[in-house]
Amino acid sequence: MAIRAAIGNSPDLVVKELKWGGLWAGAVMYMDGMADTKAIADFVIQPLLTYDRDQSQAAVERGSQALTHLMQEVLEAGDIDKIADFDALLHALLSGSCILLLDHLTEGLRIGMGGIEERSVGEPITQTVIRGPMEAFTESFSTNTALIRRRLKDPNLWLEVRQIGAVTKTNVGVMYLCGIVNEGLVDEVRSRLDRIEIDGILESGYIEEMIQDKTLTPFPLLTNTERPDAVAAALLEGRVAIIVDGTPFVLLAPGLFVQYFQSVEDYYQRWDISTLLRLIRFMSFFIALLAPSFYIAVTTFHQEMLPTGLLISLAAQREGVPFPAFIEALLMEMTYEILREAGVRMPRTVGQAVSIVGTLVIGQAAVEAGIVSAGMVIIVSITAIASYVLPQVSMSITVRMIRFVLMGLAASFGLYGMLVGIIALFIHLCTLRSFGIPYMTPFAPLYVQDQKDTLFRLPWPLMKKRPSLLGRNNPVRQGDESSPVRGDTA
User: Fold this and answer.
1) Is 197 left (phi over 0), alpha (psi -120 to 50) or beta?
2) What is the distance between the alpha carbons of residues 91 and 345, in angstroms, rounded to a whole number?
């Protein structure tokens, strides 16, 4: 059989030969473990074998119309259509569908009977919240799209699916709200996806690297999330969601700098609480980025900036330390990164214990041995904790990378080196774009209207419009812009 030969005579191909109504020879085939065998037996094989012989005879006489008769009157499956292309047949078979072929016909039937074991919808792992939905995406494409449609029950929520990967033929979906999204953005997403030529797509990270505007940058240019409510909120703002089969992380385009400091929980809490938390995140960003380099610059080049009591205390701590501040900080930072990676990769039962032992025992032993000072341990600890405040892990990793560059500049040129590094960093940020939209929007260029949801999160009655560069087709998202705001205004 040509189909067996095409997949290398794999033993997991199940072929059930039968005769429709005892007259017409045919075969039902599916991949073991990928199709629901019980459903195939009940809704495909059983109706074919028990169909009335006289009606089967009439169908046989109709020849090529027999498949239509099967679809409409015999088979009880819902997802069923004709298939004529051999490559399409193989793809359907390897995707979990059941194939029905009859002798002397050039077409067959594809019957959707997928039965792959799937992980159930659980809680988010990387983006946890205190208040809000506790659902997360899974590895199932259909489940993920259903989780989004559950929140946006609008016929204007459109989904386009294409297959990317010459070998994997992975389903990649583009979802957006027609009438809100900028059509130019959708066209650009389509164009970049269609240009991808690769053997396989195994995770959304493949797509992210291939469609982002600039490759040589440490900053993420597309947002990824495992939360359906975050995707729904992004679609309502005019963004485009890219859903990849086989991964629980959905990409959102465009990805702007300010997004990485926003959490979905900001919109479930009171506005004043959300504003406080957002300011803490921005402060933590600068602490994680600048604290070690500032400590190195001050203790190495600018001791006159320190109060006398603090200077004497730091000098006493460093009296027995044999390394300069830069080497001391580098040793501690590298040790922390190793411990962090070990805690992630090791089994969960011992991973937390390794982190605790590394933090307490090694840090205390290093101070007592005179290898590092107690002040450096405090700085590195605060820096590590601050890096975990950011809601997006991708931005946290970026901060950790840039931190080492600023430490080197501080050790070489002091605060002047830090200043040059910060200026270069801001220039780089202002040159970045995500699908044509400036990365630092709405700070640079400045959009006063959009400042209601950046550093601060104003009350919902005051945020009547969508972001300026995203929701141009339908800028107003609530009420009438000219109507007075109910309640107190500030």
Assistant:
1) beta
2) 35
- The alpha carbon of residue 308 and the mean position of all alpha carbons in its chain are separated, in whole angstroms, by 49
Q: What is the mean pLDDT of the chain?
A: 86
Alpha helices in 7-157 (DSSP H): 37-40, 46-50, 53-62, 66-69, 86-94, 141-149
CA distance linking residue 415 with residue 298, whole number of Å:
7
CA-CA-CA-CA dihedral for 465, 468, 470, 471, to nearest 10: 40
| CA dihedral (364, 365, 368, 370) positive or negative | negative
Beta-bridge partners for 241: 175, 252
Question: CA angle, 218 as apex, 213 and 219 as ends, to 5°?
Answer: 65
Residue 489 has pLDDT above 80, yes or no: no
Contact call for residues 97 and 112 (beta carbons, < 8 A): yes
- The two tokens of residue 320 are 């027995």
Six-digit token string for 403: 């931190």
- Give the pTM: 0.87
Instruction: Determine the Cα angle at 83 with ends 82 and 85, to 5°.
Output: 160
Name the token pair of 446. 């400045």
Q: How far is CA 485 from the centre of its chain?
A: 36
pLDDT for the residue numbered 62? 57
Q: The tokens of 17 are what?
A: 């030969």
| Cα 92 to Cα 89, 98, 112, 174, 186, distances in angstroms | 5, 8, 9, 21, 28
- Check if the beta carbon of residue 457 is closer than 8 Å to that of residue 441: no
Q: What is the DSSP letter of 126?
A: S
H or E, element range at 329: helix 325-345
CA 464 distance to own-chain centroid? 28
Structure tokens at 313: 């205390």
- Residue 400: CB atoms within 10 A of its CB come to 19
Cα 378 to the chain's mean position, in Å? 33
- Determine whether 164 is exposed, middle or buried from the number of CB atoms within 10 Å of its CB (0-12, 13-18, 19+): buried
* Residue 40 or 370, more confident: 40
Q: Which residues contact 343 (CB under 8 A, 6 or more apart)?
A: 351, 352, 354, 355, 358
What residues contact 64, with CB distance under 8 A and at least 6 apart? 105, 107
